[in-house]
């Protein structure tokens, strides 16, 4: 039979959750469909689009920062997914595809007001799979902060 954790451990954990904002209810506007994607898209400006290669600039602002005033990890993952799918679209044309796997390394942190260069490129393209990488660098120094590798699977064409 498992024993209950000490009360001071539970109290510290609840304090940590409060610091992160986990116990707060998001504002009602966040209930709108695709709200988060709209927020992410509003922070991006497109610098370059070529087949298999996209570069955008992301300006970190308080709406996407965590309690430590750095870019929220969930935003990094969402941005990597968005850039991957856009990059795959530049080479897949009309084919339908879906995100199969994604691995993200959080090497450092981007702070509020940092301008981040987000670069997506195709590492491998086959008949049924596209592998991409997405690098997040501080624009001014080119220091790599986050990197993501993603596998996109191309849907087979139905033969009727």
Automatic annotation (TrEMBL):
Domain Thioesterase residue range list: 68-143
Top-level lineage group: Eukaryota
Record-linked CDD domains: PaaI_thioesterase
Keywords: Hydrolase
GO molecular function: fatty acyl-CoA hydrolase activity
Pfam families: 4HBT
Family: Belongs to the thioesterase PaaI family.
Name of this protein: Thioesterase domain-containing protein
UniProt organism field: Rhynchospora breviuscula
């Amino acid at each position: 039979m498992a024993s209950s954790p000490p009360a001071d451990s539970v109290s510290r954990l609840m304090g940590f959750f409060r610091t992160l904002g986990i116990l707060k209810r998001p504002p009602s506007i966040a209930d709108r469909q695709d709200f988060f994607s709209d927020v992410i898209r509003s922070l991006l400006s497109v610098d370059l689009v070529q087949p298999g290669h996209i570069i955008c600039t992301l300006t970190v602002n308080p709406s996407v920062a965590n309690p430590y005033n750095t870019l929220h990890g969930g935003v990094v993952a969402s941005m990597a997914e968005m850039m991957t799918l856009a990059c795959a679209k530049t080479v897949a044309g009309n084919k339908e595809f879906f995100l199969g796997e994604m691995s993200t390394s959080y090497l450092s942190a981007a702070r509020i007001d940092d301008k981040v260069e987000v670069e997506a490129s195709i590492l491998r393209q086959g008949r049924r799979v596209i592998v991409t990488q997405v690098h997040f660098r501080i624009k001014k120094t080119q220091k790599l902060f986050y990197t993501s590798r993603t596998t996109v699977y191309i849907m087979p064409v139905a033969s009727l």
